[in-house]
Amino acid sequence: MKKPILVVILLLIAGCGGTDRPPLAPVSGVLLNGDKPVADATVTFNMEGKEMPRIGMGKTDSEGKFYITTYDTRDGAYIGTHVVTISKIAASDVVGGGDMEIGSEAYGKAMEAAATNTAPPKQEIPDRYTKVETSPLKITVEAGGKSDVKLIME
Fold this sequence. Notes:
Order of helices and strands: HEEEEEEEEHEE
CATH class of the largest domain: Mainly Beta
CATH topology of the largest domain: Immunoglobulin-like
Structural class: alpha+beta
Number of helices: 2
Number of domains: 2
CATH superfamily of the largest domain: Carboxypeptidase-like, regulatory domain
Shape: globular
Distance between the termini: 71 Å
CATH architecture of the largest domain: Sandwich
Largest sheet: 4 strands, mixed
Radius of gyration: 21 Å
């Protein structure tokens, strides 16, 4: 008799777990440099004025399109205003490529390059867009989300 009661109690406790995550809303859009799409850039949503457990990030495709992920793929960003930063490392500074599994040849080359190269990778995005303190890009995410974000670097 005691086992069924214990099972029910354990199921109730497990079902009450939930998450303490602040609410998210889906966010997607396009990154442009003037009127040209920016491919292979990282778009980062940094909550303005609040410290949050995570930032939202997305990678642009060949057409400059991105989807923001905070916890789970394409789940979006926290509701509120965000300062958006952009980064893109010059292809010539990306070391390894291919199979970056520990022990692979590409991994070994990347580790060797990191140990001998003290210069930081070259950033292809103007400096002001790469830092929260100087980025002019701000987006307000509301509960329904945003699927038409247009980030334009000038």
